[in-house]
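Reviewers of the previous submission asked for a worked example of the structure-prediction workflow described in the proposal, so we include one complete record here. The input consisted solely of the amino acid sequence. No template or homolog information was supplied to the procedure at any stage.
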Amino acid sequence: MKKYCVLLALLLSHTWSDAQRVNISFNATLDGKELLHDLVLVKNERDTLQINQLKFYISKIQFLKDDELVFTALNSYHLIDFSLPASTSLSIKTFRSISYNSIRFYLGIDSLTNVSGALGGELDPTHGMYWTWQSGYINFKMEGQVNRKDEPSKEFQFHLGGYQQPFNALQKVELDVSDEDIKLALNLNPFLKLINLSFDHHIMSPSTKAVELSEMLAKNFKVKTNE
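From that input alone, the workflow returned the following structure tokens.
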């Protein structure tokens, strides 16, 4: 047993000494314009959409080759917060020997982590992404206001989450990729089309609508090419 442990330790040490980094960056778009870190967007001459908060959890990052899993990042929970530019770029340590052509991750936090109670690091409740032990983590949060000519400003708050059926909002995302510098963009247009901001202003707990909106968000992550 002792010899086995020593050999295993040597193998792991050798493998990680030959590691590489995969860089993943996140952005969001609306009407074809990138948010970058300026969260105020003019949609047209009449309406101004101001996003004051935009953040979401990305978890369980995996790499695949022709649909076969080749690597899973350990303890992979990342809070993407557009008010903190550094958080929108990730550097994932992998084995140099792996070859992959797609990436898989989840939008949100899995049920096991939700029932583990309040955790630290990027899962710390002080980040404002945790409801209670009954409702768990907020997977996606967008807050802001809409200003329309001749109308009062309307504030909106969309906090999407939930880990218990029938309101499990966790969503899988899988995308084809071609290099070690992966740039992803989340198109917010389809999400906002599911919401009438003249009437729908708040989602603050697990619900059917939260699941529907989460599904729409997951479908609208795209790989940004250099073309």
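Residues 2-14 have pLDDT under 50 and may be disordered. We consider this example representative of the routine output the project will generate in years two and three.
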